[in-house]
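We emphasize that the prediction below concerns an isolated chain of 640 residues; any contacts that depend on oligomerization or on bound cofactors are therefore not represented. The input was used exactly as deposited, without trimming of termini.
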Amino acid sequence: MDVHGRIREILAETIREELAPDQQQLSTEDLIKALRRRGIIDDVMKELNFVTDNVDQELPSSPKQPVGFTDRQSTLLKKTNIDPTRRYLYLQVLGGKAFLEHLQEPEPIPGQACSTFTLCLHFRNQRFRSKPVPCACEPDFHDGFLLEVHRENLGDGTRMADSTTMLSISDPVHMVLIKTDIFAETTLVASYFLEWRSVLGSENGVTNLTVELMGVGTESKVSVGILNIKLEMYPPLNQTLSQEVVNTQLALERQKTAEKERLFLVYAKQWWREYLQIRPSHNSRLVKIFAQDENGINRPVCSYVKPLRAGRLLDTPRQAARFVNVLGYEKAPVIGGGGKQEQWCTLLAFLCRNKGDCEDHANLLCSLLLGYGLEAFVCVGTKAKGVTHAWVMTCGTDGTITFWESLTGHRYLHKPTNPDEPSAAEQSKPLYPYRTIGCVFNHQMFLGNCQPSDSVESCVFDLNDESKWKPMSEEAVKSVCAPGATTSLPPFPPLCASTIDASVTSNEIEMQLRLLVSEHRKDLGLTTVWEDQLSYLLSPALASYEFERTTSISAGNEEFQDAIRRAVPDGHTFKGFPIHFVYRNARRAFATCLRSPFCEEIICCRGDQVRLAVRVRVFTYPESACAVWIMFACKYRSVL
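Result of the prediction step, given as a token string:
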């Protein structure tokens, strides 16, 4: 419904008709009357459905869904989530321009898949996502987001925030632009912090901005494009502040932040000098105090971690570890050779593109484990062959040390070996892949390893012993890493529930795989007979594999084996091959399966009375992350 267009036409007409030469002005009431007379307002009110999708009523931190015009078909939508007693910031994205990388992009053909841009927003515990638009030099973004600006203090919830209160809310609107290609692979294009408070000093509480987005990583100084943004306060402000007041407040905040960061830097340099004086060899240890985020900004590592509660989306620490493990793993992209480009991501950028490096996984897992009340730390060190790595460690109250590998979800117990004991050779080799450890940190502490050897095997994790672990002052860490300590820290977004329907997706992938198998066998001159009952019998096995990944407990295997024995007649052979993916692309999964000789043997099975089966089970996790289990099986008469 082109509401804006129709309103403009009617207003123009009204002004022509009703504005006699002697009249200077039409009041707002006259214009509203004119719109009412032509039935526009009633139409708009009828069309307006406010969307509240997946909003968890339980949690104050539940991600709010965007409010907007919806199609007539969506009659199922629940009613409004606009509260007339609350203050909102209406942020409209009105198109983009100068996305020069897409200058040569052909016009998208209707119905044909093309690469798309999606804009993800986070503001004060509310998450939004724009509709995907085709990648172009001038992408056609037309989306509005209603962001609630609420107060922090308890008991203030009933009063609407006025302009002075809002001026003290320093949280930016974090915007992340994601590109999704035709194979559903995502790339992080830009990450931008929008300072929205300029709207408080603009007349009528409306302002238009052009925002220049910069690239990420090595390209953080290169412009990727420009977005046109319109900000509006709703309901309109009774009094706007002068632009001068707004600018002074922002300048003061910047000054305060810069001063805190400068003092921390001075302290960190001093700490590092002292650390080097303990032993010259410390120079080569992986003691990481600062890390660059996707915008190339150096931030203290402790600011990448914060206790994070998953609400009702994840139930146990081990389930949280499984969720982090099914988020994709991808090293930061680098153009040309020459080693690893280091880039730690802000949480929103990591979640929106659904994949990241080992540090991103470790930071998220540590944050979730802290949320579950465990004493968790991120460890920075090396794996075999001296490859830099990050993983998570939890310290039990009884002194047990557990390592959590965030990329696989595996857990390892750590028992220190004493290198001086003669039986050191007989001491069993550790199962974990870690070789050396330089430092550990979480949101409040940073500790450098100052034991004679930095080998993980012989390391003692008594973090209170300053002769083994050199701590940074907790006050210093808090001054730059505590929530709200500085305005340059991006606030942590809440996790979002999955939007994927597990049964529908499982079915779709299974159908595609059946087709791919049949075609593959046809090329080999083989016919394909599917047995649905056998396929169904594979379900319990897939469920128990996922259960084992989440809980480390294996269950239900006896029933599965019994059912298979009954389904396979005497003189027949059964073969099954389970495999696990974290993406939902059937063609890519099939190509990977064919590389395994076991699986290829099943798919290309020749023999008497060959019956094939395939079962797919998709397990959904927050943020639309998925664990996809596939099992191929066949039974045939054994002919000797």
